[in-house]
Amino acid sequence: MKLSDFDYELPQELIAQFPPKLRDESRLIVLDRRGEDIRETLFSNFPRFLQEGDILVVNETRVIPARIFGKRKSGGQVEVFLVRRLSDRQWVALLRPASKLSTGETVLVGESDLGITLGSRLDEGKWRVRLPDSIEENKFIETYGHVPLPPYIKREDQPHDRERYQTVYARRDGSVAAPTAGLHFTEEVLHDVKRRGVTIIPVTLHVGPGTFRPLTNEIIEENKLDPEFVIVKKENRDEIMDARRSLRRIVAVGTTTMRVLESLAMGPLANQEERIIEDQTYLTGTTDLFIGPGFKFRIVDALLTNLHLPRSSLLVLVAAFAGREKILNAYSWAISRKYRFYSYGDVMFIR
User: Fold this and answer.
1) How far is CA 88 from CA 84, 91, 129, 138, 328, in A?
2) Count of other CB atoms within 10 angstroms of residue 328
3) 276 vs 43, 60, 66, 174, 240, CA distance in Å?
4) Confidence at residue 192, expressed as pLDDT on a 0 to 100 scale
5) Can you give the C-alpha Rg of the chain in angstroms?
6) Is the peptide bond before 97 cis (omega within 30 degrees of 0)?
7) Phi-psi map region of 308: left, alpha, beta (phi>0 left; psi -120 to 50 alpha)
8) Distance CA 49, CA 198 (A)
9) How many CB atoms sit inside 10 A of residue 180's CB?
10) What is the predicted pLDDT for the residue at 83?
11) Is residue 121 helix, strand or coil?
12) How does pLDDT run across 222-232, given as a tens digit for each residue?
C-alpha cells in the first residue's frame, strides 16, 4: 500500500491551536469497526461506552519542558530540544541552527548564563549535550524549558500549556510530546469509569520527536519508527495478559498505549530488563513497532485516539485497526462537521 493512500485535505482553521475550555467538553466520535454507524457526543459521556470488566490502559508518561532557548558566546540564538536522557545531566538533543555549532561549544541560558556544553554529533541530526553542573538538573529544565508544542500549533507556549499539554494522570517524566488521547480525561471522568466496574491500568511509553515526523517512504511497509522507551510494572503486564485470556475487553487510550500493548503481546521488548523501582518489579525496554496495513492485532479490542495528520504513522496505525476507507470516511464526516483536529482537538473511540 502507498503512503498517498493515507492523504486527505484539512482546512487550516480546523487545526486546534488551543485546548477547549474544559478537557471533557471535546467532541467524541464513536465508530464501530464492524458497522457503518457514526455517533457523536461529548467526551464527558465516554464512560457510557465502557462496560463492567473492561481493562482501560493509559500511558502515564509526563511531558517535560524540553525546548530550551539560549545563545552562543557570539550572541547568536540557539534552540536546544532535549530528546532523551542518557545519564546524570547527559542528554541527546536536537539543535538549531545545527550547521553553525561545533563540539565543545557552550550555549548560554538565562540571565546567569548557565552553560549547556555541546558534545559529539550523533546520527539523524542529534547531538550529545551536558546540562550545567551549577543547578539541579530537574530545576534547570523546569525553570528554563518551554512546553514542546507540536509544529502545527502556530504560537509560542503559554503558562496554561504546562497543565493542559499534560494528562491528569501523568506521572513519569520523559516525553517530548503528549499522548494526546489522554488529554480529554478529568478526575471526574476517571471516577465514572471506575464506578462502572472498569479497571484502569497504567503503562509508560516516552514519546519522542519522531511522532511529529511525517513518513517519507511511499511504500508504507518500508517506513521505520525511532525506538521509544517503555516502562511497565510486571504485575500490570500479567494482569493485562490474564484479562486477554479471559476475553475481557482491552481498551487502549492512544496510539502510544496501543504500541506498548501490541509490543508486549509479541514477546519481550527490545533490550528488555527487569528493574526494581519503588519496591516494585518493572519491565523496561524499547519498542519501534510500526503498525500498518495487514498487522495482526493480538490484544487491543478498542482504541481511543485523536484525529491525526495525513501521511503520518498515527493515521496509518488507526487505519490498520479500523480500515482505511472507514477512517478516511469518518475524517471526511468530521471535517464537514467542523471537528477540531490534532493534539488539542477532538477525539474518536473505535470499538
Assistant:
1) 12, 8, 11, 10, 45
2) 17
3) 37, 18, 27, 18, 20
4) 98
5) 21
6) yes
7) beta
8) 11
9) 25
10) 95
11) strand
12) 999 999 999 99
Question: Sign (positive/negative) of CA torsion 290, 296, 299, 303?
Answer: positive
pLDDT band at 100 (very low <50, low <70, confident <90, very high): confident
Beta bridge partners of residue 146, listed in sequence order: 67
Predicted confidence band at 275 (pLDDT cuts at 50, 70, 90)? very high
Q: Which three cell numbers stand for residue 81?
A: 530540544
Q: Give the Cα separation of 148 and 150 in Å (integer).
A: 6
**300, pLDDT greater than 80:** yes
Give yes or no for a contact between 268 and 223, defined as CB atoms under 8 angstroms apart. Answer: no
The three three-digit cell numbers of residue 291, written as one number: 503498525
The domains of the chain, with CATH numbers, are 3-63+162-350 (3.40.1780.10), 67-146 (2.40.10.240)
Question: What pLDDT is recorded for position 123?
Answer: 82
- Specify the 3-state DSSP secondary structure of 130: strand
Residue type, 4: S
* The pLDDT value given to residue 213: 78
- Bigger pLDDT: 327 vs 216: 327
pTM of the entire predicted model? 0.95
* C-alpha cell of residue 166: 499534560
Report the alpha-carbon distance of residue 132 to residue 105 in Å, rounded: 13
pLDDT at residue 303, as a whole number: 98
Angle at 3 between CA 125 and CA 213, to 5 degrees: 25
- Residue 212, SS3 per DSSP: helix
Q: CA-CA distance, 255 to 257, in Å (whole number)?
A: 5
Cα–Cα distance for residue pair 350/202, rounded to 1 Å: 20
Q: What angle do CA 209, 213, 219 make, to 5 degrees?
A: 140
Q: Report the C-alpha gap between 46 and 86 in whole angstroms.
A: 38
Q: Which of 57, 91, 32, 64 minimizes the C-alpha distance to 263?
A: 57
Cell reading at 186: 478529568
Q: Where are the beta strands (DSSP E) in the chain?
A: 27-31, 38-42, 55-59, 61-63, 67-71, 77-87, 90-96, 106-109, 114-121, 126-130, 145-146, 172-175, 199-205, 228-233, 250-253, 270-277, 280-287, 302-306, 347-350
